[in-house]
Structure formats: C-alpha cells, structure tokens
Sequence to fold (182 residues):
Amino acid sequence: MAFDKSEPRVGLIFQIGLFAVVCLVGTRGVLISYFDSITSDEQHRKIGMVVPTALLNLRADEDQRLKSGPMPVDKAMEAIVARGRMGASPDIMPSASKDIGPMQGWMKMPNEVPSPMMAAALDDGGAPAAPAASTSVDAGAPAALHGTLPGVSPGVSPGVSPGARPVNGPITPSPPKKPAKK
Fold:
C-alpha cells in the first residue's frame, strides 16, 4: 500500500472554504431580498388596492352633516374670527388651574409647594385644594391603611399603636439623636 507523504494544500482548502461561505451568504441575501419583494407585492395587492368604501361613506356623511347643520362650519369659523370668543360661556373660557395637587407630588414622596401657589389656592375657598391622591385609594398602600379591613379605622395599620405616625404620611425631619454617654 502506498502512502502520500506530501503536505496538505492549505491555501487551496482555505480558498474553497472562503468561496463556499461567500456563496452561502450571497444566496441568503438574494433569497431574503426576493422574499421581501414578493411579500410587499402581495400586501399591496391584498391591502393597498382595497378601496375603503365604509370609510369613504362615513367621511362623506360627516362632511354633509357639517355643511348642512343649523350653522355650517364655514359660517361658524367666520363668526369666531369676526366676534372672537367674547360671547363664549365662562364655563368654557380658558383659565389658570388652581389645583396644587400635582405640585404636592406623590403621597409617598411629597414635595413642598411654594407659598405663593398655596396662597393662590387658599384665596378661592379658604382651604387648600385636596390632592387627587387623597380622593382615591393609593395603589401602593396596603388596604389596611384605607380602612377597608373590618375593625380597622382609616390611616391605622393593624398591630401599630394609635399614636404612631402613619406609614404613608408626610415625611418630616426628626432632630438628630445624641449618642449615649458611657
């Protein structure tokens, strides 16, 4: 039996491997491009070429109702331009909000409201505006803090002494404790 004692042709093997990888990557790119083209053509044929008759009918109906009402939209716009909003009801006139709830922040991370804002809020009724969080149950608080458990009053946690500060109340700084002398 004969043995081949020559060195392997590494350069030829490397060239064939590189050619195979380039062919596979190129074939993949061509197939993806072809699939994308065919898919977009089908979507255009099935979706893009369909005439939305219901939508067109709805728009035509709305346009007809806007133009043939007691005061057509064109005339209403001309009236607003001519007269302005002076004849509008005070209920729909724009005004600054007096709600300080957003400035107070989240119940568990309260913020200080500037005193001019608090004064403006107090001017309208004498009492600060109630924040939105106090009118509804806080999503992060246990049910016991809102008095929904039987036998538990609002703002008191079960197993907590009545004089203790509520768990979700405002955070107030406490004076630093002096170290005990030995």
Summary: Confidence is low (pLDDT under 50) at residues 128-138, 143-149. Residues 64 and 120 are 47 Å apart (CA to CA). The radius of gyration is 38 Å. The first helix runs from residue 10 to 48.
